[in-house]
UniProtKB/TrEMBL annotation:
Pfam families: CN_hydrolase, HIT. Its cofactor is Mn(2+). Residues 308-416 form the HIT domain. Residues 26-274 form the CN hydrolase domain. The active site is at H403. Homotetramer. Keywords: Hydrolase, Multifunctional enzyme, Nucleotide-binding. GO terms for molecular function: bis(5'-adenosyl)-triphosphatase activity; hydrolase activity, acting on carbon-nitrogen (but not peptide) bonds, in linear amides; nucleotide binding. It comes from Pristionchus entomophagus. This is Nitrilase and fragile histidine triad fusion protein NitFhit. InterPro entries: C-N_Hydrolase, C-N_Hydrolase_sf, FHIT, Histidine_triad_CS, HIT-like, HIT-like_sf, Nit1/2_C-N_Hydrolase, UPF0012_CS.
């Protein structure tokens, strides 16, 4: 209601009045380019933006998708691709060092050494010119309407496979996306839940979609996540086949446009004020009001295994025995397997019973179990598995930490008595068999880890 809106504005104003001296806002520069397939000319344009950002003492500079080049032919996107060690990117790294400037390089044609199609990669480099994060575009725009239109991004680029958590920068935690990703709000919501203060959408929107949706989508992502949204853009006519909408933009967490370019090559500047953002989140705590008992956002996210042991009841699991880690779960090899390939999947925080898991943890646990089952069946050449949870002492559970047993099954297991597996599971950690050596477990985990990370 109008009254609620007025109250929210009053609360935010008061919060700002009491906190603005605590942390200074950070100035950013946002670039708008009309790139072609002439990479030298594109670099010269970028140089000018870098100089202007340095003069204004920006902490970070944002470049658009295709900051390297916009090809004329479809084949250009493949034949002109290069990798992260290329001299073109080295120029940006050197400029970052010389000017003490962080940069968001919003999408380059990243050559795959295997010879397959390139990725569309967004990288963040720090003031030393080092890569701090890399995100490969997840959503590719494929459209084919016979007799009308055909635009298949998947014919010259391949989709990324990994969620990338927000990267810590001098202006705040930055969530990475590219162009078409803007239309998928789940990615932005996940970034917010993962700690993002700013969402970046370097883009090359077409004229038609830009006129209809560009500002609306950017403001929607800002409002629903309560994040700053930064969208560097391509603009104008790149070649006879390609034109872009422009209107590079910065939107604040309240949905206000605080910086925008028109349709010309140029820059806009804006301040990122984390204190202001925190004030909005405090007075409009919408993420605290989400109904996780009714709906969740499940993400297949791979996490680094790390160097620290992971909890499993009273028995910490060394990282060398772990072969995969997701957002809430991990998979590890077994000290005393009942059958060859018998492994365990468990929550990465101590939880006694299956019913104690949140819906988000439950979804993550069983999705990881499914992924591990698929890998094991392929690795061991079988088409059957036993998936088992012993939940509570009367079920045979001896370690008070939820875990799923996954066992690849073969003809003739237990002399052909298939269900003997349950009796064996009930006693397997208390029988007289010697436990496996650390070396044996390390070797098995390393083998599975290599497969799972491909």
């Amino acid at each position: 209601s109008y009254q609620c809106m007025q109250c929210a504005r009053l609360f935010i104003s008061r919060a700002m009045a009491s906190t603005t001296t605590a942390r200074s806002p950070s100035l950013i520069g946002v670039c708008q380019m009309t790139n072609s397939n002439d990479m030298e000319a594109n670099w010269k344009a970028a140089q000018g933006f870098i100089d202007r950002a340095a003069e204004r003492k920006c902490k970070m500079l944002f470049f658009p998708e295709c900051f390297d080049f916009v090809g004329v032919q479809k084949e250009d996107q493949i034949t002109m691709a290069f990798d992260e060690s290329d001299a073109f990117l080295t120029r940006f790294r050197e400029a970052a060092r010389q000017n003490g400037l962080w940069m968001s390089l919003g999408g380059f044609h990243n050559k795959d050494a295997s010879g397959s199609l390139p990725w569309n990669s967004h990288i963040v480099i720090d003031a030393d010119g080092e890569t701090r994060a890399r995100y490969d575009k997840l959503h590719l725009f494929d459209l084919e309407i016979p007799g009308k239109v055909r635009l298949m991004e998947s014919e010259f680029s391949k989709a990324g496979k990994e969620m990338v958590r927000p990267v810590s920068t001098p202006i705040g935690n930055l969530g990475l996306s590219i162009c078409y990703d803007l239309r998928f709000p789940e990615l932005s919501i996940w970034n917010r839940k993962a700690g993002a203060h700013i969402l970046s959408f370097p883009s090359g929107f077409t004229l038609t979609t830009g006129l209809a949706h560009w500002e609306s989508l950017l403001r929607a992502r800002a409002i629903e996540t309560q994040c700053y949204v930064v969208a560097a853009a391509q603009t104008g006519v790149h070649n006879p086949k390609r034109s872009s909408y422009g209107h590079a933009m910065v939107v604040d967490p309240w949905g206000a446009v605080i910086g925008q370019c028109s349709e010309r090559v140029g820059m806009c500047f804006a301040e990122i004020d984390i204190e202001y953002l925190e004030g909005i989140r405090k007075t409009q705590p919408v993420f605290d009001h989400r109904r996780s008992d009714l709906y969740t956002l499940h993400v297949n996210e791979r996490r680094e295994i790390g160097d620290s042991p992971l909890p499993f009841g009273k028995f910490p699991i060394p990282p060398s025995h772990v072969f995969y880690r997701s957002a809430h779960s991990y998979a590890f090899v077994n000290l005393k397997p009942v059958l060859e390939g018998h492994v365990l999947v468990s929550p990465s925080t101590p939880v006694d019973r299956l019913t104690d898991l949140s819906d988000e943890q439950t979804a993550d646990l069983f999705c990881l179990a499914k992924k591990v089952q698929k890998m094991l069946e392929a690795q061991h050449g079988v088409d059957s598995s036993t998936i088992c949870v012993q939940d509570g002492p009367q079920s045979g559970q001896t370690i008070k930490h939820v875990h799923i047993h996954i066992l690849p099954r073969r003809n003739g297991d237990f002399g052909g008595s298939t269900d003997t597996v349950y009796a064996e599971l009930a006693k397997h950690d208390r029988d007289d068999r010697p436990p496996r050596t650390a070396e044996q477990m390390n070797e098995e985990a390393a083998r599975y880890r290599k497969i799972m990370n491909q």
